């Protein structure tokens, strides 16, 4: 009985706090971010995870500190009261950003983060392709349009803010929703379900970039390609194409049906972290000769120069064209 009363009192206090503060639109910016509930002892208990891009109502109150489990330890974090699907929860303050679905966008390709709307104020941080961001004000400097963004760094586990070039942000109203549908289609096992999800995504208001992503996803489903078809493979190499002006194309997926997102020139020092397990047959040009060859695709890590410009983006190159390994 005492425990029941304590729970009811905690829930009532939670509701009063929400009523006293204004609830505002917010977005989960962490991939698979946690929603929490408060126990009668005042500690936080994990309730469920929601994907990045999930719309929430969050209190604009000052964050409160509470203990929560973290692995085998108990740590303290700052929380905000929230509502999701009509139910009360708490969210970690550094895992959300205030904004609505119109301010929820995705990064078109790897984007350098700037500390201000100035091309000289570049940082060593890159916002990854297709990362969910909440956009803010826009400024133009030296003929370049910049947009303020807030996002969650899933590698460093911190909330970041800064500026990116506007042309690095996907422009379609429903581009993020389409990317979420693509992710759901990839998790589906039935090809009919996958096709139906992709068809639904095509009805949305999307950019030409996302239309290409849908084509790629559909092609990969037909080819039975998935991340499970790749294997870890650590390789560092200097690209030797036999000619200082020669280059190979970088694709956003392992297949020539994908988008060309960059060029990799002769002499580039590259690092590959994975490759496809199986071989595909592609038409390539090697040392000036056109040929059709079977080979693997290698994923290479992107490179940023000292002045903050992108030398080349992360992506896939065909080994028969690049000659990374025999």
First-residue to last-residue Cα separation: 72 Å
Q: Which percent band covers the strand fraction?
A: over 45%
Tell me the series of helices and strands, N- to C-terminal.
HEEEEEEEEEEEEEEHHHEEEEEEEEEEH
SS content category = alpha+beta
Descriptors for this entry?
single chain; 326 residues; alpha+beta; 6-stranded antiparallel β-sheet; 4-stranded antiparallel β-sheet; 5 helices; 24 strands
Q: Would you mind describing this structure in some detail?
A:
With 326 residues, the protein is of the alpha+beta class. 19% of the residues lie in helices and 45% in strands. It contains 5 helices and 24 strands. Strands 1, 4, 5, 6, 7 and 8 form a 6-stranded antiparallel β-sheet that branches. The chain has a 4-stranded antiparallel β-sheet with strand order 9-12-13-14, with no helix packed on it. A 4-stranded antiparallel β-sheet has the order 15-18-21-24. Strand 19 (280-286) and strand 20 (289-295) form a beta hairpin. The model is unreliable at 2-7 (pLDDT under 50).
């Amino acid at each position: 009985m005492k425990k029941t009363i304590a729970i009811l009192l905690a829930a009532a206090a939670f509701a009063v706090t929400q009523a006293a503060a204004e609830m505002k639109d917010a977005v989960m910016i962490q991939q698979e971010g946690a929603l929490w509930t408060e126990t009668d002892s005042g500690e936080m208990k994990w309730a469920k995870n929601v994907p990045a891009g999930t719309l929430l109502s969050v209190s604009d109150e000052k964050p409160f500190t509470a203990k929560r489990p973290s692995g085998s330890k108990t740590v303290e974090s700052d929380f905000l009261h929230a509502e999701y699907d009509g139910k009360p929860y708490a969210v970690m303050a550094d895992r959300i950003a205030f904004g609505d679905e119109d301010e929820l966008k995705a990064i078109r390709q790897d984007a350098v983060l700037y500390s201000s709307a100035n091309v000289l104020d570049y940082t060593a941080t890159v916002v990854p392709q297709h990362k969910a961001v909440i956009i803010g004000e826009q400024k133009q400097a030296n003929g370049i349009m910049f947009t303020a963004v807030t996002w969650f760094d899933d590698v460093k586990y911190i909330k970041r803010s800064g500026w990116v070039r506007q042309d690095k942000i996907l422009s379609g109203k429903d581009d993020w929703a389409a990317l979420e549908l693509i992710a759901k289609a990839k998790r589906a096992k039935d090809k009919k379900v996958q096709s139906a999800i992709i068809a639904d995504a095509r009805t949305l208001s999307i950019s030409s970039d996302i239309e290409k992503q849908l084509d790629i996803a559909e092609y990969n489903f037909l080819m039975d390609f998935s991340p499970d078809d790749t294997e870890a493979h650590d390789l560092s190499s200097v690209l030797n194409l036999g000619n200082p002006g020669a280059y190979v194309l970088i694709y956003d997926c392992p297949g020539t049906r994908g988008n060309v997102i960059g060029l990799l020139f002769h002499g580039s020092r590259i690092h590959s972290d994975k490759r496809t397990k199986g071989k595909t047959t592609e038409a390539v040009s090697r040392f000036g000769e056109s040929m059709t060859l079977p080979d693997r695709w290698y994923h290479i890590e992107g490179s940023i120069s000292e002045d903050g410009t992108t030398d080349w983006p992360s992506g896939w190159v065909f080994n028969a064209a690049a000659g990374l390994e025999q």
